[in-house]
Structures are given as structure tokens and as C-alpha cells.
Amino acid sequence: WIDKKNGNYLRNTHYNFYRSSSDGNTIAKFHEKTDNKGANIVLIVLYFHLKITKILIQGRLEE
Q1: Contact of 51 with 60, CB cutoff 8 Å
Q2: I need a labelling partner for 7 at 20 to 30 A (CA). Which of 14, 17, 23, 56 fits?
Q3: Which domain holds residue 14?
Q4: Side-chain half-sphere exposure of 16, counting CA atoms within 13 A
Q5: How far is the C-alpha of 32 from the C-alpha of 26, rounded, in Å?
Q6: CB 34 within 8 A of CB 46
Q7: What is the DSSP letter of 2?
Q8: pLDDT above 80 (res 41)
Q9: End-to-end distance of the chain based on CA atoms, in angstroms?
């Protein structure tokens, strides 16, 4: 995706991917899919509302 090539290689990989939005958004489902499968790499993408981001960065709520 970075070099704008055909995206079909993403579907033809020998790696297994877990995605909470399609595989289940619970700890039990995560462990069901990933336990005893070797090492795991976890990527977390968070989307914040602007007001929440300001609280986290500045430590206080400004109106």
C-alpha cells in the first residue's frame, strides 16, 4: 500500500491476522485466535474526539 502497488498480495499471505471488528471484540476471542500460535504483534489504532485529545494532551478541559 505504501508504494501504490496492487493490493492482492494482502490476501495471499501466509500470515494469520486477527481483527477485532470482524473476529470479535473480546479478550476471550483474542485469546481463542492467538494463543499457542507463537509470537504476536499487536497494533492498536485509536481515534479520539478533539475535546478528549485536548484533555489528554493538556491535562484539563477548556471550554
Answers
A1: no
A2: 23
A3: 7-58
A4: 10
A5: 10
A6: no
A7: T
A8: yes
A9: 40
Helices and strands (H and E) in the chain: how many: 3, 0
C-alpha closest to that of 9 among 17, 1, 20? 1
pLDDT tens, position by position, 7-28: 565 566 667 778 888 888 888 8
How far apart are the C-alpha atoms of 34 and 30, rounded to whole Å? Answer: 6
In a domain, 2, yes or no: no
User: Residue 12: inside a domain, yes or no?
Assistant: yes
- pLDDT bucket at 53, cuts 50 / 70 / 90: low
Task: Name the pTM for this structure.
Answer: 0.48
The answer as to whether 22 is a domain residue is yes
Is residue 19 domain-resident?
A: yes
63 pLDDT band, cuts 50/70/90, is: very low
